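Bug #77: duplicate submission created two jobs. Keeping one. Sequence:
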Amino acid sequence: MFTTTGSRGLYKAPLSKGLLLVLSGLTVMLTILPKYQGLFTYNLQAIANHQQVWRMMCGRLICLDLKDTFCSSLLIYNFRIFERRFGTRKFASFLLATWFLSALVDFLLAQAVISLFDYEVEELPAGLLSPVFSLFVPFYLSIPRVQVTQVLGHIPITNKSLVYIVGLQLLTSSPFMWLLAISGLISGGLYHCNVLWLQRLIFVPVWLSRMGRFILEPLFSGPQPSGETPLGMGATLDIQRQQRMELLDQQLLLAEFNQARRNIRQQPQTGLIDWARLFPSLRHRGQNQAPPQHDNQGPAHPFPQPQPPLLDNSPVAEEQVALLVEMGFSRIDALEALRASNNDINMATNFLLQH
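Kept job's structure:
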């Protein structure tokens, strides 16, 4: 029930597919050959006291527990949505930055445990766990929450519930997994908020991205989904509904980006000609505009027609109406959905998707 990711599998997500295949395959090989598992343990004391820096690479990539591999693979498969939306290079930059940041935070948290509880953390669970936990930060902040159903009439089940359940299962798999979870959330929050310009300091270079595109992408690029028609819509109603939810997620992220961009760049124009009025933004053209009305009895009105009147006198937040209109819904439908849901944007979005 990973409804937030749509129905396209690993299409346009070569990095996610490579992580799933390579890391899972290495975990299976280490399970078959247990005598080599000692080389891939994430031993903090060996790194700090014996300068075994190579354990930072081996111990923080491959899981030694099949249950951790299974849960982290499910999460990587779900979080592939970020690679499809923002591109492989940005997705790889996020994983690389959180991998380095979480390595530093791991040692700081281990020292904090020694200071607070007088307990020395010698070994942590191995695997690409902290970067996986760091992906919960953009998942929580960027992916809209749409209610799917309710349990016992009071407990809401959304399109993100199963992801959090898998993350909780991974969190409880070992005693010190909480330390890696906190480390991942801290590093993910720092990079997502661009603290100290981390996004400019730690990133995948363009030349490395191009090299991976020509060498690795042909090996791990997923095939185009066979359940889609040539027009791009799914062949079944379930696939079409999932694709529509995915398109809604993309439109919501685009609307948030445009809003942040307007807040940063909105400045009074000092030129003699108002170019914004002569050439309006493309977002305000298209299906949300009313078709022109031709009147044979008189000339056309030189001024734009006013917005359609409200259906009733109940108050509706204009910001929420504008957000739904930017997603592609008409103003009248957005007003009806917001009034029916008592101005709850999540319920209104769910109402518009189902009708």
